[in-house]
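WARN retry 2 of 3 for item q-0093 after timeout on previous attempt; input resubmitted unchanged.
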Amino acid sequence: MNLFKRFFGTSKNDINSQTDETETNKIDKTVELGNQFVNKDNIELNTPELFKNELYDSLNRYYSTPDFNPSLSLTDDNGITYSEHEAFDNSFEEWKEIRSVWDRRSVLFSLWDSSELFKLQKWQVIERYVKDRYGLKAIDFHKNQISDEDFENIRLAVSLSKLYRVMDAYENALHYAKGAYEIRPDIDIIKVEYATVLHLSKNEEDKKKSHDLMNEVIENKIKEDDRKEIPLLNYFVFSKGYIDSSIFASVFLAVGNCDLETWDKLAEEYYWCPNFRYEHAVFLSKEGESLRAIAKLNSLANEFPWFTKGILANIDAIKQFRNINSDPSFMSEEMNQMERYLSMRKN
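OK item q-0093 returned
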């Protein structure tokens, strides 16, 4: 059975375009208008109960351990017990003003740094930075804090592969993923990462091996699952034994003709990956969500200025908007920034 030909996720609904020709002509000349579509969640939904849920979830993610499930002592020396939003009131005040789940998660990761960072194993530190979009911090940690002895824990090689995928350094990622696979080809997290890296290769044989490895992982999960009907994309959501592959998540979303809601849900998991964000923007553009697409491309390029594909896509999108509006100055500041990023890559 070829899993790449199966149906994944929710069927695509008929989606009305966010912009018709008339509306497009009224587009503001700044990217903030697009951000209204990206950040459309109402911050009034950021309740103390949601804070509690995201607080504990963030600690599991901070440790890269879905079933960590810690208990927090929220009782002071006088025997007074506080709610989570009261105990962490400063973080709550910052958190409740943020729309996106990934930026709220970042606030909570910063909270845990003060008490938990020193407790993490080195592979967990790398994951903490990668999943919080701090690739440069992770590289600095790799250079200054990791020795050969640390590679006795093979998860470190997997985490470093993710890091260099994020940094668009394919050969480095392949070095760690392949090295780990050659030592322990029986471990799913290693098999998944190696398959993920191979999928980025330009070599068709590598891509075929990539698909074979991922098929093997998914088939084994299906066999071990007692459910009769299995939405396969659920395997890519943070949970015990999940498949941590941003690349294959985007592949399955595309192959399954998934809808906007499903893409947005998986984006909560893989916003840290520039390749996923690029594919998300491509999907939005195809669905007529032009404003959301260009906003996502612009934020992608600014957060990952080394990711050339994202920069070029953003430049192309800006040019298209300029042609549509007959406005050669549309997003001129953003265009100048993209050109600076490209010049940095050439130097």
